[in-house]
Structure formats: C-alpha cells, structure tokens
Design goal:
Layout (H helix, E strand, L loop, with lengths): L3 H10 L10 H7 L3 H12 L7 E11 L2 E13 L2 E6 L30 E6 L5 E4 L6 E4 L6 E5 L3 H15 L15 H5 L10 E4 L5 E4 L2 H14 L11 E13 L6 E12 L2 E7 L19 E8 L3 E6 L8 E5 L19
Parallel strand pairs: 5-9
Antiparallel strand pairs: 1-2, 1-7, 2-3, 3-4, 5-6, 6-7, 8-9, 10-11, 11-12, 12-13, 14-15
Protein name: NISCH protein
GO molecular function: kinesin binding
InterPro entries: PH_domain-containing_M2, PH_NISCH_C, PH_PLEKHM2
Length: 348
C-alpha cells in the first residue's frame, strides 16, 4: 500500500483552484506529491495506524455553526474518517467560533510554524449525505450541529467522484444490519401524509447512511420563487430554468495600493427571459432532525436580477477554467419604458 495508480490519482487531485487564495500551510500541502503526500497524511493527520488514504479533493466548505464563513479546505477521505484540513485564517474569521474551535495553540501564532486546523468526521458518525441541485455541492450530516459540513465543489464531476469514493469506503464498514422493514402502503412509502408533499429521493447505503438527492419538485419550487421575483411579468407554465450554477461575483476595489478583487459566492440562475443572482443558504436546508426552529434566513435571497433583453454584451476573459464573464446591461432607469407605447400615442 498504496498502489501506484492511487498515488498518481491523489497527486493529480492535489491542486488548489487558481482563483482561491489559501494560507502558507495549505500551500505546503498542495506542493506535496505521491509518497510524500501519503507519508504526510500518516504522520500528521491519520488518527489510527491502519487507515488508508483513498481520495483527496480541494473544496470550499461551510459549517452549520458558522453558515456565513466559506473557507478553503483540503478534504481527505480515508477508510476511517473524512478530514477537513482548513485554512488557518478561518479560526480568526469569527469571534463566535471560540466555543467551536479550541485555540490550544495560540502561543505558537507568532512563531515560524504554520498551523492548520483539522476537522475530523468519523465515518461511523456519518448519518446522511444531501446532494445539491445539479451536483454543485453536497452536505455531510453527523449526529450533532457540530458535525454538519457542506462542500461547495461548484463542479458536478468532483461531487460525483467524491460520492462514489465515499460509498466504496462505507461498504468496508462493519455495522450491525438494519431491522427488517415493516410492510408499508404506497402513500406512506413515497409521501408524507402530514404535508402531502413527495419526499426527496433517498438511497440507503448498506452502511445505513442515507444519500438524499433532490427531486423534480425542488426545481418547481425554485421556478415558482423566480417567477415571484419577476413581479408576474412571465406566466409560470412557460418559465424554464435553463441554468443553475454556483459561481462568484467579482467585486473590484480600485484606488487601493494594489487593485484587488473579492469573490462573493452567488447562485446564478438563467431563465428564458432573465438572469438572476441569489444568495443561497447551502447548509441549513433541508432542516436537520435535531433543529428546533427554522433557519434565520430563507434558502434563496434575491441579490440581483436583470432582463435578458436589456443585455448589451458579454465580455469573456481568456484565462483557463474558471472562466470570467462580464455581463454589460443597458443602464435604463425605467426598465418598462417600451412597454406602454401603443398606437394611441401616435393619433390617427
């Protein structure tokens, strides 16, 4: 152990996305190759001697306790646990986290050491995995609020690969078999009698971990929400969501010592008539079983919306993935200027 193929695969995956900045400690990890990476895992991260590193992925992550702080992480999947090696700036990002993160190493802050926090979620504590719309993200849920993490891969391929690897690793776990299911009728099996609403698709793995996928109703709900934001300009039956993608909105700051830009996470939704940017809550929905009250904010909050017919031009950058797009709209104060011009205005 490990095989040459696995080491090559992990080395290829060990690349930080170019548009995201990380601390020196994570840059060090990203510079490791092959056997050095595996040895680093066993000497610094692994909790037991006989666990095997199976998969590595770089992703932005969100924690249930700190839903507004998105942080870069190196996600390592072994045969025993999922490890989130976090950017050390995360610990200082929010004063409310002092109870969540133990700052035992604060005396080392000014030394030459570069420290990283490592959040560990043992596979035996894993209860469910919720896959987001169009595989843009997934949420891992354990037994408490401390054990809920969303990985914002913004990439269906990375999501799919991680889920496949996770299922394979879970198959190795020895768990007591589930009790025999009680025979149910159709309605109790596929619907909730209290709400009359169809449940999301569930796949219960042999390890008893649930893998939950969104159903068609979620797209319908999203289309209805989008139609509401359009103030009834479009009739709902003809409204189609053509594209749903997790992206970043670039805010450019000029006049500073060096022109800098910050990336604001946004959900971009394209319909046949409009382009929308939403602030989406990726971590609170669907509600975990132990939640006593609904989240403080809605799942989707409209940040910006423009009509496609006001779009003047689209500027494309020449860099490699991820591609930068600039949408230039006609700056018309009254959007509906042309709507009421009928023949009556021109007389006979």
């Amino acid at each position: 152990y490990p095989s040459e193929f696995l080491m090559q695969k992990i080395t290829e995956d060990n690349q930080i996305p170019v548009h995201l900045h990380v601390s020196v400690s994570l840059q060090y990890v990203a510079g490791l190759k092959g056997r050095a990476l595996v040895e680093f895992f066993h000497s610094n991260i692994a909790e037991v001697e006989n666990e095997e590193l199976r998969h590595l992925m770089w992703s932005s992550v969100l924690f249930y306790k700190t839903p507004n702080v998105e942080v870069m992480a190196c996600v390592l999947l072994s045969t025993k646990a999922i490890y989130f090696l976090l950017d050390d700036s995360f610990v200082h990002a929010d004063e409310h986290q002092s109870d969540f993160w133990n700052k035992e190493n604060s005396d080392c802050e000014n030394s030459s050491f570069h420290l990283s926090c490592c959040f560990v979620l043992k596979l035996n504590d894993l209860q469910s995995v919720n896959v987001g719309l169009f595989d843009q993200y997934f949420r891992i849920t354990g037994h408490s609020a401390d054990h809920i993490v969303t990985c914002l891969t913004r990439d269906s391929y990375n999501t799919h690969t991680f889920i496949q690897q996770l299922m394979a690793v879970l198959s190795l776990l020895a768990r007591t078999p589930s009790p025999e299911p009680v025979d149910k009728d159709f309605y109790s099996e596929f619907g909730s009698k209290t709400t009359g609403k169809m449940e999301n698709y569930e796949l219960i793995h042999s390890s008893r971990v649930k893998f939950i996928y969104p159903n068609e109703e979620e797209i319908g709900d999203l289309a209805f929400l989008v139609a509401e934001k359009m103030d009834g300009l479009t009739n709902l039956p003809s409204l189609n969501i053509l594209l749903y993608v997790l992206a970043f909105q670039v805010n450019h700051f000029e006049g500073s010592a060096q022109n800098t830009s910050s990336l604001q996470p946004k959900t971009l939704i394209l319909t046949s008539s409009d382009l929308f940017l939403f602030d989406e809550d990726y971590i609170s929905y669907p509600l975990p079983e132990f939640a006593k009250e609904p989240p403080k904010r809605d799942k989707y909050q409209l940040a910006d919306g423009r009509r496609i017919r006001d779009l003047d031009r689209v500027l494309m950058g020449y860099q490699t993935y991820p591609q930068a797009l600039t949408f230039v709209f006609d700056d018309v104060q009254n959007q509906d200027l042309m709507q009421n011009l009928t023949l009556d205005h021109f007389g006979e």
